[in-house]
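ok, trying the design again with the full structure, not the truncated one.
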């Protein structure tokens, strides 16, 4: 019988906390780069290109797996690439806490995708999760004092699209269960590079004028950060039960909220917090469902 992941694996817990902390803080240096004239798209291209260059030897060594599942690799690259780009652009332009909360709508889309593409039936628990997530989204986006009663900013749309893409990534990864985790990480980095480059070309965004030292710093430090953020998440979720790792990763919201309060003047209303709480409850409910199924 295969051993179950330990709930008290200290290295895995620390890895997840590190990943959550980095993802909860990544918006601040990206905003500083934006203020210095380096857009989120260019910063993403620089950082993920550095990660991809480091991964090239591994990428080549795993080419047999790539050639056996090229369609799945491409889908993972597209979905995960969009997840990262949309999330990065959203936290640069929007309210950090609001963006992170909307991103946690991903379990809602995952349940819908699993029903449409994997044939999974709606269980009472899944329907409860859907109801909580939808109610939370309505409370966050419905503004009775606004004309039309709905408030959708560009950052909101990016955050929502990132959550949809993240759910699509998870469904695709389930199909690609035989693909090594390192190759899936490479797909993410490559997807970001390609999508960012296409967006830059289509948007006719010129190369920013920055000093060489700063550019090298972005390339090296940003590349290391993206590699660490990706691998720590993968290590943590591979060595912890899904339920516990989902709870630990919610530490990202705490880090983002505290950092936003200290470093910005952004405010989140009580109604938005309540809606966000419902979304978090739905995320935990979805994680608990997955953990129960995994251990049955």
């Amino acid at each position: 019988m295969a051993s179950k992941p330990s709930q008290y694996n200290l290295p895995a817990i620390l890895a997840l906390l590190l990943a959550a902390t980095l993802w909860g803080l990544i918006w601040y240096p990206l905003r500083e780069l934006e203020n210095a004239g380096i857009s989120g798209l260019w910063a993403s291209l620089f950082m993920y290109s550095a990660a991809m260059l480091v991964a090239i030897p591994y990428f080549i060594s795993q080419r047999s797996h790539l050639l056996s599942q090229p369609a799945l690799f491409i889908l993972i690259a597209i979905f995960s690439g969009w997840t990262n780009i949309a999330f990065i652009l959203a936290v640069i332009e929007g309210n950090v806490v609001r963006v992170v909360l909307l991103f946690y709508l991903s379990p809602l889309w995952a349940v819908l995708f699993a029903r449409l593409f994997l044939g999974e039936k709606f269980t009472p628990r899944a329907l409860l999760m859907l109801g909580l997530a939808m109610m939370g989204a309505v409370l966050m986006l419905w503004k009775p004092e606004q004309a039309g009663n709905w408030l959708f900013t560009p950052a909101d749309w990016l955050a929502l699209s990132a959550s949809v893409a993240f759910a699509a990534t998870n469904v695709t990864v389930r199909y690609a269960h035989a693909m090594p985790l390192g190759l899936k990480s490479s797909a993410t980095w490559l997807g970001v590079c390609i999508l960012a480059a296409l967006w830059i070309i289509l948007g006719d965004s010129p190369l920013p004028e920055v000093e060489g030292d700063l550019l090298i710093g972005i390339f090296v430090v940003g590349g290391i950060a993206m590699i660490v953020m990706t691998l720590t998440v993968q290590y943590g979720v591979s060595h912890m039960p899904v339920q516990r790792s989902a709870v630990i990763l919610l530490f990202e919201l705490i880090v983002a909220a505290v950092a936003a309060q200290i470093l910005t003047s952004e405010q989140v209303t009580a109604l938005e917090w309540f809606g966000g709480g419902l979304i978090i409850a739905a995320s935990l409910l979805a994680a608990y469902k997955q953990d129960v199924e995994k251990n049955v």
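Keeping the full-length input from now on. Residues 10-295 form one domain.
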